[in-house]
C-alpha cells in the first residue's frame, strides 16, 4: 500500500500513542534543560519534535511537545508513557513541576487538509515535515469529523510515513541504542544546536561538528517485498537492517559508507533475498559517503 497524493483530507486514530502532561511554575525551564529541542518554539501554541537522551547521547524517549495552558502536553508511544514519566521525575528534584498521564486523550493523524475538530480537541502541524499534516489530540469519546475528513487506516498513515522517509522509534531504530543524527533528528527539526545544555548535548554537538555520522535511517526500495527486521548486507558485509516496510518500500538503518561502497563497486545491497536500492529522502541535506573497501 502506498500513500496517495490526491488533495483529499484523511485521518486515522493512532492507538499506540499516549499523552503526558507536564505543568507547574517551573515546567518550561525544567523541560528546556532536558530535551534536545528548544521549548521556546512552543510559545503561542506551536509544537516541537524532541527526544530525551541518555548521558551518552542516545535516544531513550522520542515525542512531540505542545504548549497548552500553564504547561505542556507530550505525545509519545503509549507503551512508554509510564517510563517517560518516571524518567522525567528522576530529574525533577525540587522543581515546581507536576507530571501526569492523560488517559482521557487519544491521538490521531490527519493529512491532505485541515482537520475539523470536535469540542475540546487540539491540533498541531507535525513539526517534522509539512507533508505529514497534523497531529490531533482528542478527548475520550470524541472522533474526527468523517464527512470533512474521510477515515484512513493506520496502515495508510505508516505507508505515507515510509514513502516520505520518516523514521519512527521502536520500528526503525532502537531506543537506548541510537544517536539523534542516526534517527534523522538533525534533518527533521528534532534538535536545536544553538540552545543551552541538555542531557546528552555534548555527544550530539560533537557528532554535528565533526561530521562523524556513519549510520542513518534511510528509505530503500526492493526488487521484491521487504521483510521487517531483515538484515541488510553490502556485498558480504553486514550494513544494517530493515525497520518499517510497505511492500517494496521501506526504511532501513544503514551504515551508509558500506552501502555506498558496495553500490560503487557493483556489489549488491541485499535484504534477505531482495536486492535493495537506497533513496535519500527529498529533505536530506546529507549525501552518501564512500568508504575504502567493503
Quickly list its features.
32% strand, 5 helices, TrmE/GcvT-like, globular, 294 residues, 16% helix, Gyrase A, domain 2, alpha+beta, five-stranded antiparallel beta sheet
Strand % is: 25-35%
Order of helices and strands: EEHEEEHEEEEHHEEEEHEE
Sheet/helix structural class: alpha+beta
Report strand order across the widest sheet: 10-13-12-11-14-15
Low-confidence stretches: 1-5
Number of helices: 5
| Second-tier CATH architecture of one domain | 2-Layer Sandwich
Taking all Cα atoms into account, the compactness measure Rg is 20 Å
The protein's oligomeric status is single chain
What is the assigned CATH homologous superfamily of one domain?
Probable tRNA modification gtpase trme, domain 1
What would CATH call the class of one domain?
Alpha Beta
CATH topology of one domain: Gyrase A, domain 2
Classify the helix fraction into a percent range: 10-25%
First and last CA, distance: 34 Å
Shape: globular
User: What's the total number of strands?
Assistant: 15
Amino acid at each position: 500500500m502506498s500513500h496517495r497524493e490526491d488533495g483529499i483530507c484523511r485521518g486515522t486514530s493512532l492507538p499506540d500513542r499516549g499523552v503526558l502532561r507536564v505543568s507547574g511554575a517551573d515546567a518550561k525551564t525544567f523541560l528546556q534543560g532536558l530535551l534536545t529541542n528548544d521549548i521556546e518554539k512552543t510559545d503561542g501554541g506551536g509544537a516541537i519534535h524532541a527526544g530525551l537522551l541518555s548521558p551518552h547521547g542516545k535516544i531513550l524517549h522520542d515525542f512531540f511537545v505542545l504548549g497548552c495552558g500553564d504547561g505542556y502536553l507530550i505525545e509519545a508511544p503509549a507503551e512508554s508513557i509510564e517510563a517517560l514519566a518516571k524518567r522525567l521525575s528522576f530529574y525533577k528534584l525540587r522543581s515546581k513541576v507536576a507530571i501526569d498521564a492523560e488517559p482521557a486523550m487519544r491521538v490521531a493523524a490527519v493529512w491532505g487538509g485541515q482537520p475539523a475538530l470536535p469540542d475540546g480537541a487540539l491540533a498541531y502541524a507535525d513539526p517534522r515535515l509539512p507533508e505529514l499534516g497534523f497531529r490531533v489530540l482528542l478527548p475520550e469519546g470524541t472522533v474526527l469529523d468523517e464527512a470533512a475528513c474521510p477515515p484512513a487506516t493506520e496502515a495508510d498513515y505508516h505507508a505515507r510515513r515510509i514513502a516520505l522517509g520518516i523514521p519512527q522509534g521502536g520500528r526503525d531504530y532502537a531506543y537506548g541504542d541510537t544517536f539523534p543524527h542516526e534517527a534523522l533528528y538533525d534533518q527533521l527539526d528534532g534538535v536545536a544546536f544553538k540552545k543551552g545544555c541538555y542531557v546528552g548535548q555534548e555527544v550530539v554537538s560533537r557528532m554535528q561538528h565533526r561530521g562523524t555520522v556513519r549510520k542513518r535511517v534511510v528509505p530503500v526500495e526492493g526488487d521484491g517485498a521487504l521483510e521487517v527486521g531483515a538484515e541488510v548486507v553490502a556485498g558480504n558485509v553486514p550494513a544494517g537492517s530493515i525497520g518499517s516496510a510497505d511492500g517494496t518500500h521501506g526504511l532501513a538503518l544503514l551504515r551508509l559508507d558500506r552501502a555506498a561502497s558496495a553500490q560503487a563497486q557493483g556489489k549488491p545491497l541485499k535484504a534477505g533475498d531482495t536486492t535493495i536500492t537506497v533513496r535519500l529522502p527529498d529533505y536530506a541535506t546529507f549525501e552518501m559517503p564512500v568508504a575504502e573497501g567493503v
